[in-house]
Every structure is written in structure tokens, then in C-alpha cells.
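Try it yourself: sequence plus adenosine-5'-triphosphate, in.
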Amino acid sequence: MHYHAAAAVLSVGDELILGQTLDTNSKWLSMRLLEAGVEPKFHMTVPDDVNAQRDAIIYLSRLVDVIIISGGLGPTSDDLTRNAVALATNDELIEDEISLTQIEAWYEARGRAMPHINRVQAMRPSRGQSIPNLHGTAPGIAATLRHDHRVCDIYCIPGPPNEMMPMFETQIMRRLRIDPLRNTYTRTLNCFGIGESDLATKLGPLMDRGRNPLVGTTASSGVVSIRIRYTGEASRSDAVRVLHETEQLAHAAALPYHFGNDDETLQACIVRLLQSKAQTLGCVESCTGGGLGALITQVPGSSSVFLGGLITYANTLKTSLAGVPSDFLDSSISKSGASVSRETGVQTPPVGAVSRETACALAQGGLEKLAVMHCLAITGIAGPGGGSREKPVGTVWIALASADGSLDARKFNCGNDRATIREWAAKCALGMLRFKLEGITARLLREQPS
Ligand code: ATP
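Structure, out:
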């Protein structure tokens, strides 16, 4: 029996090669293949060039048991996947009558006649098969490429994700020949507040490449994930046991930064923790302009714990909405460089909007005004202007005030560019809250001495 143990995903399209479209199909297909027990070994992307596609198919067919090709099945002259498969398999294209009828029916159901150019979509290699597409006009194609010692199956599916996914689920999955003795089980441990290399150092020999379960790390938007994957013949219960053993070791190495597993995001973790304690949260945001609230409200059910927030971008609103004393803020700095209290007339050194004092006042003001049990406040310099030697672009102060009377304020360096600074600031605020809710005393990545 020829099993599909190893797979390659081949993406086709000039728009992918030129960086105009992000190749999300490869990511999705690889995850689904892995879950199904077929190991993705290669990703390749080729332009709308029939020779490049043919060469890629022949090259990959010597290395894997199955190739999934997405894209290039449309009706226009740059859609050449059909031709490339025919060339690679040394076959000729013929018209598939059933496909033609289905494409015509697709148009008829929408009250239109099939444009002549769509007829080409019914073509397939003579020794191959057409795969019906219920969500568009492009049928898929199944073909086989035989070498002396290897047989490689090729499945072509449309590029648009809303056609690609259902065709893979309903048509390709059942064609995959999965070795019943080769099981794959995965687990992901998500961590925040530690850098990827520091985490890798802590994991040490757990990351040895010959190990099974295999352990790897990936960093994305501040979250470092530990990926654990078992592949082998063990029964499900044995595989789950060995996976769990490795998970325990990885968890111990990642303490106290491990916040959740698999698809759980940092914001989902925060909502879960607040819900388990029946506590509420609010926020006062300056440089993130609502980004923290947006992150939290991504989580379904967040309304049970997140009451809302204030966006106090201008200093005037920091004072009028959150009650920050105006003499903390730069707008009241006197020419001598000191601020003068309106109330007392006494000169004090100006602390400015981006300071421990202002962050704390924002958090405490928000705690009272929003009547919440925890209030996070963020104030920082997102750039590109506004930085100074003492407070360079990327300096962010975050404070957390809680109804139990605690007040935590930390300074961070959140990066160099505006988007990164704003994203990291919101994530660091969530990281601080997580430590508070879990009773953890530790520093977070990017935290600065203050
Ligand atoms: P059709 O032309 O019938 O829509 P097709 O199979 O020819 O289907 P392409 O023309 O290659 O598909 O791609 C159509 C669109 O699908 C692209 O413009 C892009 O938006 C999306 N797409 C294609 N490939 C990918 C990919 N790998 N990842 C994400 N989106 C993709």
C-alpha cells in the first residue's frame, strides 16, 4: 500500500511571489495535513509560469508522496496549473464532459450563460480526474506522477480560500491514504514575556532534533509558542501520555511565562482568568488609542469582565477624564522647565505625560471613574516624533491599579516603529495583568529599569 506519509504544498500565483497576497493557503493546508497524519515537508511558491510550475511538480514528486497545489485553475491565460500538471505527468489535456456540465450549471443557477473563456476550466490531463467544485467554477484535478521507486499523487485545488478549504475538506481529505500506524499528535504551549532564545535556552535538550515528541519554538507578535509534536506508531492513549510528559517538562521550563495552550491568545487567557475570579477590568489608553480595548474585545464573552475604557490621547483629556493633575503634564511646563502647580503655585520638576506618575494617576483615575476592579493605563511615545534622550521613541509606561489597593507601574521599551510599539504596549499591559491575576512576581521582556 502506498501511503501518503510526506506532503508538499505548492502555491501558484504571481501575486504571491510579488508579495501582493499573503500565502495563507499553505499555512492552512499544512495544519490540516498534519492533523490528518500527513507530514508537510515542503512549501514552494511559483509564479504563473508553466515551466516553473512543471519543474516544481517534478522536483517535489521525487521527495514526497503527495503534492497539494493551490491556485492557477481559473479561466484566464495566466491560469496554467492544468497545463503544468499535464506536462509534468507527460500527459495531454482533454475536456471533461461532467466538469463542463457542472460549470455551465453553475452559471445557469446564477441566471447567466457560461462565458466562452470558462470552457478551459473543464480541461484535465487524460489520465487524471476532475474534482467537483461546489463553491466556484474551477474544478480541482487529481493526477499521479510515477518514478521508478516512488509514486506521487497530485491534487490541484483553487486558490481562493473560500473554494480551497471546502474542496480540501470534502474531496481531498477522503483521497488521502493515511498510514494507520503513523499517528501525529500536537500540543502548543503559548508564552508571553520571554524572548525566543531565552526560552530555547531554558528548554535545553528538550529541543534536540532527534527527539520524539519533537519540540520547537515560534515567535509571533510577542507570543512565543512551544510546539510539541509526536509522530509514530503508538496508540492514541500512549501517544497522549508521552505528549503529556513532554508538555509537563516544557511547562516547567517556561514558568512563569506559559499562559495557555493551542489556540488560546493572551487576551483570551486574561478573559478566562478574570471570569474565573469574577473580576472586572477597564483601561485608560493614550498611545495605544484603544488598541488594548480592541484586543480584549476580540475575545467572545469578554463583555462579562471588560467594562470599557477611556482614550485620553490629549493631555487635556488625561486631566478632565482620568483626573491626572495638570501639573504632571507637559502642557503646564513653565519656561524654566519646571511645572507650576495651579493649586499651590509651587514649582515641581515636570514629570510629563509619559512617566510613572502619569501612568499611575491614569490607572487610579480609571479605576474610580470606570468602577472596575482592575484598571490598566498605557502612556508612551509611539513616534516617529516626540522622542528625547531621556524618553526615546518606544518608551512606554504601563500602570495597573486594582481595587485591593495595589498599584504596579513599569517602564518598557516597546520597539522602534509605531505599529510595533503600539502592539507591544497593549500586550505588555496584558502581561502585567496576567502576573497580577496569577500572583506572579517577575519581569517581562522589554521591561526597563526605572
Ligand atoms: P479563480 O481564478 O477561479 O478564482 P484560481 O485557482 O485560478 O481560481 P488564483 O487565480 O490563483 O486562483 O487566485 C485567486 C485569488 O485567490 C487570489 O487573487 C488570492 O486572493 C487568492 N489566493 C490564491 N492563492 C492564495 C494563497 N496561497 N493564499 C491566500 N490566498 C490565495
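One thing you can check immediately is this: Confidence is low (pLDDT under 50) at residues 332-339.
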